[in-house]
Amino acid sequence: MIILVINSGSSSLKFQLWDTDKKILLCKGLEERIGLADGIFNYEANGKEKIKETRSIPNHKVGVQMVLDQIVDPKHGVIGSIKEIEAVGHRVVSGGAQITKSELITPEMEQLIEDSSYVAPLHNPANLIGIRAIKDLLPSVPNVGVFDTAFHSTMPEEAFIYALKWEYYEKYGIRRFGFHGTSHQYVSRRAAEMLGKKPEEFNCITCHMGNGVSLTAVKGGKSVDTSLGFGTMCGIPMGTRAGDVDPAVIVYLMDDLKMDVKKVHELLYKESGFKGITGLTNDARDVEEAASKGNHRAEIALKIFAHHTKKYIGALATELGGRLDAIIFTAGIGENSTHLRELSCEGLEVLGAKLDKSKNNVRSKEAIISTDDSKVKIMIVPTNEELMIAMDTQDIVKGLKK
Question: Which DSSP category does 353 fall into?
């Protein structure tokens, strides 16, 4: 089945075209600066010349049309006709509490995505823009929403209910949702496969570490707890996000320092994490470089990141019923930063996880980086959210044809 995968942002659009029967990626690309005259169009297809061009991309509908034109282009395209696309899978960040799996996108589902925007105000509206652009241009092709929050719908009540007055959960839906679910699901399944285990017999902690970070306890193939919560800020410090902060600090910022809600939100989400601590950058690579040159704030930023990571790994390990099979690193930092992986694994021997520093000297490929005698495997599994989205989309669409 030929499936187009779309990840629509507010001013960007990532896309991949998959042959899911063969699990072959046919092409991929990224459109940036949508809405501006100097938009950027990136495209890469197997065995063909890469394209990076400055183009005017006034809106997402025009951007999607550019994608469709490109994949059937006689010189650079990979299919003969748009009619070969049998379905489109969309990454959707939040489906709220109602969504527990990937779903066919209907008008009712669009409304639910819109209603769930209070959880992901930066993401869901942008995801909807991509969905509606595809529906306008490919009206007869089924669309499937693959939700980041769905994988975490298996968490027990004690993991997702906050200890607030009950009415705030019951009336307003304030609870832990969790994010990066598609990534956590993919890497946990792939790690089980690498180790010759069935997902339902495999317990692990997955560490999705990019500009956004979340850790998840996966027990028998299901999420039982995760570090992100109602929004995308708590847990581990990130590129620009603060991670866990005592709520008393927020009250102090507003009451004593007279910061309004907008300024506090800006501080916690966009001016904290690596960027806030170092005063330099949100990019972990740049932080590591600065630390290597003796920048104290950069050194501290890395140690804070690792400290919180270890703390969460230890806490999540207790949710796995007495058996932890593997700790898995993925996403930009998790796959590429040998230094942050090493810092994050210091002290995990108490859990039976021993890092082999020589094996850890690897980037962006599947690997087992623990010592041979480590009871708990430490692994790198590059995430592939787009393949997960494509496979879920295939399953939904095939179900419609039965």
Answer: B
